[in-house]
Amino acid sequence: MEISIEKEHDLFVRFALTQDRALLNTIMHIYAYIPEILARRFAGKGLEYDDIYQSACIGLMNAAKRYDVERGTRFSTYATPTVLGEIKRLFRDKGNCIRVPRRIYEIFSKANKIRNEELVKTGKVPDSEELSAALGVSTDQLAQAMYWGDTQDVYSLEQPIDEQDVMLSDCIGVEDDTFLMIENKDFVDTFLNSLPEREQQFIKYRYYDELTQAKIAELMNTSQMNISRLEKKVLTHLRELYNRTIFNA
């Protein structure tokens, strides 16, 4: 279980000063739940769980060595994208471990093209019903295609966005290519600071914790439809802010 803020601060201050191996082992023990949880999310997707867990632990160790308590972020929040990045790097280095049926991938590719075209033209992302109707497939087929297609794509998004070796793929949602236009941390910070607290919380759940709309709706005590609308609103705001930044540069 995660320790208190005060104990965490003291632990990492001492480790930063001494780099004591015993303190690192203590950190690895206290926060072992992070690689365990994240490794389980990738189990059954082409690699052995033990290999995934080992990479996750390496990510946790790297995060512990780089963590700066003065930044005011809890270690678990800081470590999660680093651990995810290490897991995704494992999948990338192993190559195309996941084999997706051609029909499924074709549905994903066409759906992704429609989403991007509509986003550019209208600033809105078509929902699953609209996409399935446009493609002539069932919503179940579409959901399966989007899941596997996004799983494939996520491992190629290895663009670093800051000096902490956090990858772009660690911070974006799996269902929105809009976030690929983010090129630097300053823009991300500006974007987040421009949002109300509720929308910032949604961004954390969706693009940092990588939760589904259904899970976010449960956590935020609302319907999945409202979360879908909120996501479209946030993405529209992102595009408008990005365009203003580019055109005023």
Description:
With 249 residues, the protein is mostly helical. The protein has three domains: 1-97, Four Helix Bundle (Hemerythrin (Met), subunit A) (Up-down Bundle); 102-151, Arc Repressor Mutant, subunit A, CATH 1.10.10; 160-249, PhyR, sigma-like (SL) domain (Butyryl-CoA Dehydrogenase, subunit A, domain 3, Up-down Bundle). It is 67% helix and 0% strand. It is built from twelve helices and no strands. The protein has helices at residues 5-18, 21-30, 33-41, 49-66, 75-94, 102-122, 128-135, 139-153, 185-193, 197-208, 213-219, 224-247. Helix 7 crosses helix 8 (139-153). It starts with a helix and ends with a helix. 25% of the residues are buried.
Shape: globular
CATH 2nd-level architecture of the largest domain: Up-down Bundle
Rg value: 19 Å
Total E-strand runs: 0
Number of helices: 12
Supply the CATH class of the largest domain.
Mainly Alpha
Q: How many domains in all?
A: 3
What low-confidence regions span 5 or more consecutive residues with pLDDT below 50? 151-184
**Strand composition percent:** under 5%
Distance between the termini: 46 Å
Give the tags:
249 residues; mainly alpha; Four Helix Bundle (Hemerythrin (Met), subunit A); Arc Repressor Mutant, subunit A; Butyryl-CoA Dehydrogenase, subunit A, domain 3; 3 domains
